[in-house]
Fold:
Amino acid sequence: MSGVGGHQALREAMVATARRMNTSGLNQGTSGNLSQRVEGGFLLTPSGMNYETMTPEDLVLMRFDGSHEGPRKPSTEWQLHRDLLQARPEVGAVLHSHSMFSTTLACLRRGIPAFHYMVSAAGGTDVRCAEYATFGTPELARHMMVALEGRKACLLANHGLVAVGADLPAAWKLAVEVETLAAMYWRALQIGEPVLLDDAEMERVFQQFRGYGQ
Structure:
């Protein structure tokens, strides 16, 4: 595992993504956090640090045993990131945000059902809402892992959004997609209950997406 100054390109990409989270409206202030898998562990954003002044050197290098290197304290949600990256080798990056519409639904303890076919982007027929637990606790990480079974994104009750990807761009893209879906679903709920797509249609959607793109 490289030292504190290693992984420079990944560190720079993480800082750029963290800043983009705020400028895009996906996150606010110092809330939210990012992680990126590296050999033997992962890079993680520091606790309570302004993304605009954060530098690549401020990112924390963590091991799966919870130890870390660097001048900063790791995010209080380090267990959430550690548990996900340790349990799911296909995940290379984790993005957690307090995005407005996803968090609104999470405060209602309401997931996102199959009201639109793009819900399938999160890996299943819905985006689940995990049970509530205090931030930064092992209980929160456990509830999140249950909600993410067979999924790539979930809501955290009274808290926010988690999205994963093979790399940072994939996690970013999915987080934006889920937040967009949350906004659409919230708006639809102002008028009534949206008509949901059934499992058979969602399976057809999954099949269609297998050949989608260039």
User: Anything to note?
Assistant: Helices lie at 8-23, 78-87, 100-107, 138-147, 168-189, 199-209. The CA atoms of residues 29 and 166 lie 26 Å apart. Residues 8-211 form a domain with the L-fuculose-1-phosphate Aldolase fold (CATH 3.40.225.10). The chain has one domain: 8-211.
